[in-house]
Amino acid sequence: MSEFLALLSSPEQLVLVTYSLVIYGLFVFFQQINHLLGEGILWKFIRGKYHKPREEERIFMFLDMKSSTTIAERLGHVRFYKLLNELFHEISRPVLQTKAEIYQYVGDEIVLTWEMEHGLRNSNCLKTFFMFQESLLRNSENYLKNFGVKPEFKAGLHFGKVISAQIGDLKREIVYNGDVLNTTSRIQNECNKYQRNCLVSGTLMNRLKGINGFQWERIDAVTLRGKETELELFSVVNVHPGYPAPAL
């Protein structure tokens, strides 16, 4: 102990220890901010990528828990929050491995987005859902034991142009504005009507249909709420469950 104190009493060693602690503290701080904002968002703020509104094309997924109202009533607020927290941790690995970005948490709903290149490559935007689905199945007994439910999710996917920009003063965030978000949300709402877990717009399906490993079924040409033109919807299932994680 005396030798350790003597070591710290050396001005050179004290400076080195202080410098190391400051660097470590900054690293932890930026890691926490990065987690708070979302993976990669902090760097976009620093670079000023969204200081001015810009148009870009993106894929969006609206991912929603089935029967969430019934489950919440049964569990109560505190236990339902714990369930959601575990589920949101569960999806972290698929999100990271498929280069998705978590845009928003809206209650029990998660909104994911991809740059077109990342979302189409290896059909990452679909693999996120099926990797999450398989993870839920593997851990279903644990959820049943701890919460009395086996959670399931439904998803809607679409792509299109959005205006992306940094907004706010006291609290800043990057927002996406465009019809594609409303359309994707309404596609996900159609899952209940057609009793499907994952529905994809025809326009996005045409960009993904050549990729092996998925089975497509045309559901219908529908006029979504608030829309004037019909949109084709396709159901998609994974015919090769348990595939390896996509290469980054």
Strand and helix layout:
Layout: H1 2-9, H2 11-37, H3 41-47, E1 54-65, H4 68-75, H5 77-90, H6 92-97, E2 101-106, E3 109-115, H7 116-120, H8 124-138, H9 140-147, E4 153-167, E5 173-177, H10 179-194, E6 198-201, H11 202-208, E7 214-222, E8 231-238
Parallel strand pairs: 4-6
Antiparallel strand pairs: 1-3, 1-4, 2-3, 4-5, 6-8, 7-8
Helix pairs in contact: 4-5
Task: State the helicity in percent bands.
Answer: 40-55%
Strand tally: 8
| Overall spatial form | globular
Q: Which residue ranges are poorly predicted, with pLDDT under 50 across at least 5 consecutive positions? A: 32-38, 243-248
Q: How many DSSP H or I helices?
A: 11
Amino-to-carboxy terminus distance: 47 Å
Q: What fraction of the residues are assigned to beta strands by DSSP?
A: 25-35%
Radius of gyration based on Cα positions: 22 Å
Helix/strand order, N-terminal first = HHHEHHHEEHHHEEHEHEE
Structural class: alpha+beta
Q: What is the arithmetic mean of pLDDT?
A: 82
- Biggest beta sheet summary: 8 strands, mixed
What does this protein structure show overall?
The protein has 248 residues and is α+β, with helices and mostly antiparallel strands. The chain is 49% helix and 27% strand. The chain has 11 helices and 8 strands. Strands 1, 2, 3, 4, 5, 6, 7 and 8 form an 8-stranded mixed β-sheet that branches. β7 (214-222) and β8 (231-238) form a beta hairpin. Mean pLDDT is 82; it is low at 32-38 and 243-248.
